[in-house]
């Protein structure tokens, strides 16, 4: 049963310092009180690329408690990277983070990032086979397929039958939510140089192909159901920032994302409502429309069509991880979601 939580001084401090962002914009506004506003139905928190390093590992339990103390938040999403990219991908570390995750009072949806499996071939990560690490991530965090993590889990539809229990869909406040295993490092295709490979292995290529096919099938099914139900919107959640505005990608950075990007364009452009893509990976808050008509990303990926109704939001992470994103589902319309960056008290 969900606990009744009082508003603490810690939460009040966070709220007063928050930057309110409405309808996908990024201009600061007056922060709202930490209670459900009139006309809204559901609010959730989004975090990612945390904890990174010893200081954040120590602070992470406190940050979880601050999210727990926010009475507006009804569920939490972690968009991957539960460690930095230069530390060991040990079983013990994964289990420690699972222990932290178990202290979330709300349902927690987690989609894996590259740092906890794809990049674990690196020598300073332990020189693991990444596919073996992904299997361990699934064992530690997805031991009860079809249910979220957290102390008050809710049921989700998962692809456990296809071997991807981390791929889940669910519905809240008339909105379909989709979490897909789409990590950085070129969707898991960058070579395992720490194991001595300069090109992707046959095993690696097949795993990326199979996982991407499952991701796309999940996306098609979620949008088909959302259209049939006349849902107000669709929210897609993943780790990879496929549209990082701070650099010019090479083919080695993005080639394996192309089928997924095309699927996003196809589905969003045929959906009569707003679509949102939440990601992490690049560590700096950003909000944009990377697949809208005229966007250079359309030609970069060589995709057909455009998705003018898709808004992408990247959450703060790594050294920028000083806040969580509180997202509120409001009235139907072009700005179905609004969000605030809620600073941690310490």
How many H/I helical runs? 9
Strand content: 15-25%
What name does CATH use for the topology?
A: Purple Acid Phosphatase, chain A, domain 2
What is the H-and-E element order?
Answer: HEEHEHEHEEEHHEHHEEHEEE
CATH class: Alpha Beta
* Fraction of helical residues: 25-40%
- Give the termini separation: 29 Å
Structural class by SSE content: alpha/beta
| Biggest β-sheet description | 7 strands, mixed
CA radius of gyration: 19 Å
How would the blueprint of this fold be written?
Layout: H1 9-17, E1 19-21, E2 42-47, H2 53-68, E3 75-78, H3 91-101, E4 108-110, H4 130-141, E5 157-159, E6 164-172, E7 175-179, H5 184-188, H6 202-229, E8 233-237, H7 251-254, H8 258-269, E9 275-279, E10 286-288, H9 296-301, E11 310-314, E12 323-329, E13 337-343
Parallel strand pairs: 2-3, 3-4, 7-8, 8-9, 9-11
Antiparallel strand pairs: 1-13, 2-12, 5-6, 6-7, 10-11, 12-13
Summarize the structure.
The chain has 346 residues and is of the alpha/beta class. The protein has nine helices and 13 strands.
